[in-house]
Write a structure and sequence with these properties.
Largest sheet: 7 strands, mixed
CATH class of the largest domain: Alpha Beta
Number of strands: 10
Helix content: 40-55%
Strand content: 5-15%
Number of domains: 2
Order of helices and strands: HEHEHEHHEHHHEHHEHEHEEHHHHEH
Oligomer: single chain
């Protein structure tokens, strides 16, 4: 009798096992980039358990996905270059907007800028966004460069300035995708220029300051160095600088950190919520995207990590100190001067990689 019941029991238990597997969401996101209470709330409201892994560089994310069968349901790649490359490779699942009723909360103007690389916004929804600029110790910069204007990449890119600032610590994030377009814009060139002349000009500018650069490291390391006062100038992401400023204030050690959004025009970037084509649980991923696009949820995330979101109706719920900070939410005039980096041709990308390797090596 028991032997005859075993197949029936197996059939009865199998759906429960499958259902249990389907109630797990596997997320891969940047480190220090969400409010943990938001993840807990999602599980509480949906019953979906979240396995949340983090990375500190796009190279790490791409390496994990390039192997195939990563096991992740939701990833948050930056628009350029990673999202664009994954899209070209067919590695992303088109989003089913019928499962994302909160899609309408997204800022159409910002989504239109993303549509340059994701036609029709079919594969990605903006999670958070920001600009590339300088994190500085204003007191040390003013002491080393009396009378300098604190609104330009001149602070770093003029060799005579870099030489005077070297003692207090200069850092550059290890990201040619973000650094080279900013350098080209500072030079008065097309930030999306990929000619040999553009590469030579950018390399010459970087080589001129290289002897004075202490470190070329991931942005997460720059955040820590700014917060502790180990660096006085760093080219990095706006949100990392703003987080560093908050940590410095909380530590109460007399370290003041400020952000410089370059008057020459700052690079605008977007981190996009996307679903890998081989995601084991795309249903849960759609549910999480829809959950995150609620105004109160996005406000909580912005309050925690100090990066702007793309849900305008969340703004009244963002803390005033964050909401009114023009480094977090640039005004229309500042946004009009920003640019979005495009996807370089493959040969230009290889040339850029070689250029960056020479810059890092100092030769």
């Amino acid at each position: 009798m028991l032997r005859r019941l075993l197949p029936l029991l197996a059939l009865l238990l199998a759906p429960a096992s499958v259902a249990a597997q389907e109630r797990v969401l596997n997320v891969y996101n940047w480190s220090d980039y969400i409010d943990p209470a938001v993840v807990e709330r999602f599980t509480r409201e949906t019953g979906i358990r979240v396995r949340y892994d983090v990375y500190d560089s796009l190279e790490t994310l791409e390496g994990r996905l390039s192997a195939g069968r990563s096991g992740y349901d939701l990833i948050v790649p930056t628009s350029e270059p990673t999202f664009a490359r994954l899209l070209r490779a067919g590695a992303l699942l088109p989003l089913d907007r019928a499962r994302i009723p909160n899609w309408g909360n997204l800022d159409p103007t910002l989504m239109a800028r993303v549509a340059v690389i994701d036609p029709g916004n079919r594969h990605g929804a903006i999670y958070l966004w920001g600009t590339v600029g300088l994190g500085i110790r204003p007191d040390l910069v003013r002491a080393a460069l009396p009378g300098v204007a604190l609104d330009s990449l001149d602070i770093l890119m003029k060799p005579e300035n870099a030489r005077r600032l070297a003692r207090c610590g200069i850092m550059v994030m290890d990201s040619p995708t973000d650094v080279l377009p900013s350098v080209l814009r500072w030079l008065g060139r097309d930030p999306n220029g990929h000619s040999d002349a553009d590469h030579r000009a950018a390399e010459a500018a970087l080589r001129a300051i290289r002897p004075h650069v202490r470190a070329i490291v991931p942005s997460s390391a720059i955040l820590d160095a700014l917060a502790t006062g180990e660096a006085c100038v760093a080219l990095t992401y706006s949100g990392d600088v703003i987080q560093a400023a908050t940590r410095a204030r909380e530590a109460n050690r007399g370290v003041e950190v400020g952000y410089v959004m370059p008057r020459e025009g700052a690079q605008l970037w977007f981190d996009l919520m996307a679903i890998p084509a081989d995601a084991p649980n795309p249903e849960a991923a759609h549910a999480f995207i829809n959950f995150l696009l609620q105004p109160d949820v996005m406000a909580a995330i912005t309050n925690q990590v100090r990066y702007p979101n793309a849900v305008p109706t969340s703004r009244p719920m963002v803390a005033a100190a964050v909401r009114d900070d023009r480094n977090v939410f640039p005004d229309d005039a500042a946004l009009a001067r920003t640019f979005v980096a495009g996807t370089p041709p493959r040969e230009a990308e290889r040339a850029r990689t070689r250029l960056w390797s020479r810059f890092k090596a100092g030769r």
